[in-house]
Here is the input.
Amino acid sequence: MSEELRRRNVEGEAERVEHKLVRAESNSSSENLASNLRDSEIDSEDDKIGKGIDLSGNIPSGTNKAPFFLETLLQDLPDRWRNWVVRGVFSFLMLTFFLVVIYGGPLALMITTLIVQVKCFQEIINIGHSVYRIHGLPWFRSLSWYFLITSNYFFYGESLVEKFGVVINRTDFLRILVTYHRFISFSLYCGGFVLFVLSLVKKYYMKQFSLFAWTHVALLIVVTQSYLIIQNIFEGLIWFIVPVSMIICNDIMAYVFGFFFGKTPLIKLSPKKTWEGFIGGGFSTVVFGFMMSYVMCQYPYFVCPIEYSEALGSMTMDCEPSILFRSTNYKLPDFLSGFLTTLGFADSISVYPFMLHSLSLSVFSSVIGPFGGFFASGFKRAFKIKDFGDVIPGHGGIMDRFDCQFLMATFVNVYISSFIQRDSPQKLLTQVLYLKPEQQLQLFHLLKENLESRQILAPQV
Amino acid sequence: MSEELRRRNVEGEAERVEHKLVRAESNSSSENLASNLRDSEIDSEDDKIGKGIDLSGNIPSGTNKAPFFLETLLQDLPDRWRNWVVRGVFSFLMLTFFLVVIYGGPLALMITTLIVQVKCFQEIINIGHSVYRIHGLPWFRSLSWYFLITSNYFFYGESLVEKFGVVINRTDFLRILVTYHRFISFSLYCGGFVLFVLSLVKKYYMKQFSLFAWTHVALLIVVTQSYLIIQNIFEGLIWFIVPVSMIICNDIMAYVFGFFFGKTPLIKLSPKKTWEGFIGGGFSTVVFGFMMSYVMCQYPYFVCPIEYSEALGSMTMDCEPSILFRSTNYKLPDFLSGFLTTLGFADSISVYPFMLHSLSLSVFSSVIGPFGGFFASGFKRAFKIKDFGDVIPGHGGIMDRFDCQFLMATFVNVYISSFIQRDSPQKLLTQVLYLKPEQQLQLFHLLKENLESRQILAPQV
Here is the structure.
């Protein structure tokens, strides 16, 4: 039978080619031969590249797979229901895992982020390797991993150095790593670059360059953004937990609203998404974010940045909460307060300033956030794959669940650096203490003079 | 005749297909049909992609083109000679231009870098558009340019803010741009990202994603690295001129040595490169760099970083040269000095420390630098183009001349940040002055306490 099928298909191919020949013959434009041939090449390329390559056989992609114990448990249910149960069970498991990791604190979160990042990278690279099929060069895959390690070394190093430099500097060996961190990272990268150039094989030039680019784009998406996630965690767990929960909430609520009220299609890319879901999800996210922020603002555990305490000699998450997390009275606008006072309400409300910032986050996560998902689903369509992988039964790959989280993390990071985080005196002091003692003294005198000249400090006689 | 040629070629194509059919038929392995078909697809893909796409018709690529006045002047010369003269004339013109720009100072250099960067980006993007031929979506090109502008806004902004923040902060409007710089940049980027997702057209998914990746890799290569070049310029012109000249010197001398002594091929990728050229070029570059550094160390114009002077109220390149550029005595190792003193020489030498650093630069530029060139030539081979463009007669595109410069610039930047530049008291003072006055005072007292507790500053009664 396989023989029969093969012949039929070969005949099909021959037919297609013939059709092309006819077209080429009948093309009577005045252009030269070369352009004609190019045209027919475009067609066949379109078949394969323009409209997507079918990778369904190569990428372990599927949401239907369920672990054995669930499979046997649910065998009597209809398919549709079984999928639902599997999806539900694993959503619950992921949520539990998320809570456990939060309970584990910043280190546990950092390690989880790293694992998620590596898994996402692997899924993207796997797709790349299936697309370009350079099975003849198996160690080319090692090169991708080498670049992953190098860039992680660079980015994680940068953030650890920035945060814990003073502590790290106490050990001689670590001090060398800190001082020459960029140089070491760059040397490692150059090693990979040279290896890449040396690995070029004539027949595969184009594929190799494509995969090189593919690897770098994956690094850009996954590594740089997960580095920003780590930075957010260091600013205080709330900057991590609230945005992540918002994306999850938006996902779920958009689905729920879409399911019950969905009528108007939102975007061609994802035919199942509707305007009703988009708006309902967005509204829910804003409310949810506001309430969640209110709760979290009350716990120093969520609110304090992770700092090294000289006094304790260890890391600490205790602090005097910053102004963002202290209840503040906001006077309502006149037209509103006039109305409210006649009704017997107060003319001001008392909220944590962070709750107001949470509005920006929730608006971003429900307006721009979904575009991360659209991007991912466009990408999957381009390569005709259903999911990025199959590690989470009922959900697909890790990348399928985290597509929107990366963009959100970048937004949070930028938001913090633009609106929240100003250089604090403490932070600058840390930097000053890096200087040699005589330079510290020099800075002291420079600052003193400057302050005196501007009469901020009373000149001493 | 064109008709005849076309038919012949079409017949050729049919023959190739037939050959493939035979192969497919004769393949009697136990694998299924799908894999068989995939195999034959690989072959045809290899023809077009694996072995490179012939873009010779699309990319304006050529080193033979000469401007009209030269063409008429040289018309009696044999082709080979004419190429030589054109190449020589334009090498000379470029060198002159380089000198004029240096004479013009840092601002002129910055603008030139920007222009070169834009040109390189254009050349890379042009190739991408020819490869993926999405002529149906002309405004997709605009999106690439939009990303170029956005990322330049971000990177140039970052470096200007870092360097001239204090000055910029004096104007209210500019202060807003500075304070929210990252937020504005990110918003601009998100705009492009959303536009990209909205622009996705079903038939072109794969091509659009490929070009999106292509654009981002181009940004990574061109924009980020040219940002590093700007940073190097700010550190002092010497950090720009010496490395650039080293790469040029290495290019020329490797060619000269290869021409006269070249026998042993160096790398398959560039058949004309030889070990003799590589070694001779490297040796010349080390000597050249050493001498050039010696000369340049004597001029404050080359040596001083560009700073804003409060006293002058303007930019200045006057300074007390740093220790790097002050002649220093180095005692020679014992075995050498014993030998030299018996010959009547001194037992120490006096050099500028920068000259020793120049050795690292020249070694990098002659060992790793050429790999930038190999990379570029591999890339050109993958796409079967001779040059990246044709703006410089006799040389090709801008990218052809700058392929090694980008990697070198990154090296210099990393080198400075690892080995040269430490936070200076002045630099930190600038940061302190960003704080609010009361915070400046707070830092002052914190620092004072700290210095007193460590007895660096005598405690006041």
